[in-house]
Amino acid sequence: MDVRFYTDQGTGQPHIYNHGVSEEEVVAVLKRPGEDRPGHGGSRVAVGQTNAGRHLRVIYVPDDDGAGVFVVTAFELTGKPLFAYRRRMRRRRR
């Protein structure tokens, strides 16, 4: 899977760095998302757990040919959104 990242124009680095997320963590979530649902304007939202145990929400746009994705942003889930995600996962496993 070809994964490209939105670059912050001020720093020249991937935008995900502003949220303390690495490329490897994003790829781990995209490979095994707990949830993957439609977002706005053709984007998708993947939520899942990294190999280190962090829960991330990844906003991405799939390529037209399906071979790759363009990651817009990714950030760690905390608080109520994390609680709601865990509750949905528990209900799905029943």
Structure summarized in a few sentences:
With 94 residues, this protein is of the alpha+beta class.
Notes on the structure:
This protein has 94 residues and is α+β, with helices and mostly antiparallel strands. The chain has a single domain (2-93), classed as YaeB-like fold (2-Layer Sandwich), CATH 3.30.2310. The chain is 26% helix and 33% strand. It has helices at residues 23-31, 79-93; strands spanning 2-5, 35-38, 44-49, 55-62, 68-76. The chain has a five-stranded mixed β-sheet with strand order 1-5-4-3-2, covered by helices on one side. A hairpin with a 5-residue loop joins strand 4 (55-62) and strand 5. It starts with a strand and ends with a helix.
List keywords for this structure.
94 residues, alpha+beta, YaeB-like fold, globular
Topology:
Blueprint: E1 2-5, H1 23-31, E2 35-38, E3 44-49, E4 55-62, E5 68-76, H2 79-93
Parallel strand pairs: 1-5
Antiparallel strand pairs: 2-3, 3-4, 4-5
Share of residues in strands: 25-35%
Give the topology string: H per helix, E per strand.
Answer: EHEEEEH
CATH fold description: YaeB-like fold
* Span between termini: 31 Å
Helix % is 25-40%
Estimate the global geometry from the Cα principal axes.
globular
The total of helices stands at 2
Number of self-contained structural domains: 1
Question: Mean of the pLDDT scores?
Answer: 94
Helical/strand content category: alpha+beta
Please state the second-level CATH architecture: 2-Layer Sandwich
- The main sheet orders its strands as 1-5-4-3-2
For the largest beta-sheet, the strand count, sense and barrel status come to: 5 strands, mixed
Using only CA atoms, what is the Rg? 13 Å
Number of strands: 5
